[in-house]
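task queued by scheduler; priority normal; single chain, no ligands, no partner chains; default sampling; output format set to structure tokens
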Amino acid sequence: MLGDDIPARMLWFMTRCVVTSSASLIALLGAPLLLAQQPAQSRPTSLEYCYQDQFALAPGPYQRARPAPGAAPARIDAEDSCISGDLGTCKRRPLEPASAWIAGARLGDWICVSDGTQSGWVPASELKLEPTPERPIADWRGKWKRDAGDATVTIRARDDRMLDVSGDAQWSSGPDAVPNVGQLTGRAKPSGIELLLGDPRCVGPDRADKADAIPACLECNARLLLVGTTLIVTDNRNCGGLNVNFDGLYHR
């Protein structure tokens, strides 16, 4: 009886080993796949699309940022070099409640907010985002001068919906050199805090990649954002001569 039972026991043992080995192999092969599916740690790692004029480069959407219920939002300044290292060493500054904070770039679980003069990264969980209200035409009108660099932008109301924009900028390699000049012209209807002159694809984060792929990007295109009393402008680097652009922060 015992001898007759040996082949059956051996068959059961061999089958069990094959099943166990197969399961182990599947688990082993599946582990890297599962690890690859895990999201990488999300955190701000650079100043990109958050510091000064770069705020207008983000794909958006640009939204009103308010404190989430029960939260006290605090930002890490966009220019703080600590964001490239241990975020725990970064100083967090509360969002001043009197300022109108606008959300721009997203980077993982963080959102860049700006009030037009200061910007920084805030955990998304601390913010409640709302659509940006339409700015009255009167808020856009006027002559705007760039804070850093020789450039002006003039905005006039064509009617109660459309705006006419014209701008002049220049860059010079020295006091005695002939300056390179640039012009910005366009007509558009603002949407929220945004005024687009040309094709929006030409003034997004990947604007350099679109320069030759889209015919419209060979012309001057620009995005203007009105955040509080600050006008934030970025163009596609085709609005003038060498080193001439309209990027920057402007005030009346």
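post-processing summary
- Residues 1-41 have pLDDT under 50 and may be disordered.
- The longest strand covers residues 163-171.
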